[in-house]
């Protein structure tokens, strides 16, 4: 219990550190820090800072600002308990910061920091709980003498929500399996923060019912049914094993030998050791080359001092124009352009300091001049120049916003004015950036590098404060967001996931209701469907599925004019059921190919088959109307049909082909002209047309003769060798849809390995054609890998994404490396190793690190299973060459394979080499390196060729 005297001492110290006039003494600052560092008094100090502001009747702005700055300086180092963090957050929320920009910035910083601290505390608690559970499970396994494992199909998830500032964007994060109780107190006028998981309850009114009835639906989920039993009559047939409780078995496929990667995060320490060794070796090489090899420093044009210490560049308008002309004309002379750019940035910022609005307008117009250049390098540089101008604008204010000991109040006020000036400059430049991006939309910019430069610049402005600025996102025109997303090469990385979040928040910016006018600017349901099909990111699929479901509901509402209360309840229940069946992750396959009468089969599955045996879902199905459920699914079917619908003239030509059973040269010429068109809509028509032709060929195979069949097949195969990347992409897309078509026809033969082998052989043949053409387009390479992985992989568990795992890639490759996906050895054995090898050799290591690593793991597994595969990739030479790569994951898995392969080839020789290595390690007292295969393999490399 705190004594009055002790409390008075802290009160006095707080007052001395927040005086409106003058600065605190050194003794008072040291005394306050002493109490902050004491766990017994840290909460009291923060409490007294809050009371200091509350008890000040004059509400002196200087006292408020200094109190806030006192919290800001100490909160990172001296952390109070959870209750005090919540009090501080509430305190910051109530302060009026409209009159002071520096105060507003400090409050935002504090509230963001508090949110992170609260999440870290929650994460630690959850980690401890999981560790305890894991230990208990291990004990159970020992006591039950290794009983058969029964893995949970899902995990209920919960996260702490923090109240963010109104100006902070709140964006949907990944998971649809979030606890329904979680956001009961969340503000309906805000969307979720980037750190929070996606919660469908925060969307439009059609998701409020479950929020009001959180106990209606149990937490446990039955995911296996839709995934295996009913997915196009997929290659797996899951049945309950007699007397095995909830254990499931897969008929026809031996999953006992399934390949499951040990979670890659468990190797982080070993990979860090590899990186340290590589860094030392690089430094050693530089030393051997001598001082001449070191990079020469460029002469600085001017020192980066605060603008108060700089002198303006005194140039006439003509001279300033000459500087900018030098930027445009010296695109190939990078050093001259760099020098001219630095001078130009200084000129522009001088105009801002002088508040010369006419000159500012003229100088910003010069960015558009660069953007109108015919050279893509110049158009990209326009965004780089704008970005660097914004960075240098920060020199217009001091780094510290708290006055030093000898500072006077006048200097402090000047700092605040400078900060406001910087914010005004940045806002002004952001408006120019939006104008530049919209010009790219209008001119239909094709160059990926230009869009990438614009995207990098935009992300800096949106996330410049450490969080996504809600107002900036809402101010973006939907067509800009569409252009950025369309230009994004990889549909599975973190950047794409962020762009989808921005898209969703822009769509739901109006009271969390789907903005259909905004949706039309994006391209309507077709654009959402295209994104939904093209990504394997779970979070992106979850977000996009909610949009599609809202579109479905809106279409039904329009048909019925007005929905009844009972129908609204049905909408909530159907959404929850689809969510629990894993529909957001499985429906993309239906969007690529929807089998005939599939919704009838699906409805029967829900109301007549396995779901009736699952107690968790029985409560839902009993309340559902079968006819209304079918109506919802049928509307999904309408969206799919609309996406692939042929234009009238092409549909007429297709109907004529079906009627006459003849594929004419005219038909093939039409398809060729569509595929060769630069118009994306024409390309889609061409792909859809050709797929329908190929489908007819396979449907009528062995029953009736189609005239000119060989010409059609030859035309299709030639696409794999086309010079145009989008034609090769169309070939891959049709191949994937044909694979799904074949899967749909094996409904009565699922689990039949020979049938599966035939489908994989078809896939192998088509994908091998693309590799023979030495495909190097990364979009096509990653798509080719997606086709294989989506067919042979099995999800075994759902990742619970923690609050500090924002950089986690949730695509199929990352999940495989984390052990959440397994691949049956029987299926991997059939896939051509050349497909994995080609993708591994040609994918970019930085952009597709996880995909490359997954390829290497699968190559290694095939080499373990089959010596001919090992020889086909180049044997030990191939894996030895990987030991010099810069990606530590590649190096680790390569060395791990070499070690395993040596043991497999000759166990005696391997044991002798390892014993010698161990003896050396013990002498040098570095026995910990034995755990890392990289060190062992490096040591014995010379002996591999001679002994093995």
Automatic annotation (TrEMBL):
Coiled coil: 169-197
UniProt superkingdom: Eukaryota
Bias kind Basic and acidic residues: ranges: 135-147
Keyword tags: Coiled coil
UniProt biased composition (Basic residues): 120-134, 148-158
Disordered as annotated region, ranges: 120-165
PANTHER family per UniProt: ARMADILLO-LIKE HELICAL DOMAIN-CONTAINING PROTEIN (PTHR34958:SF1), CONDITIONAL LOSS-OF-GROWTH 1 (PTHR34958)
Annotated protein name in UniProt: Conditional loss-of-growth 1
Organism of origin: Anaeramoeba ignava (Anaerobic marine amoeba)
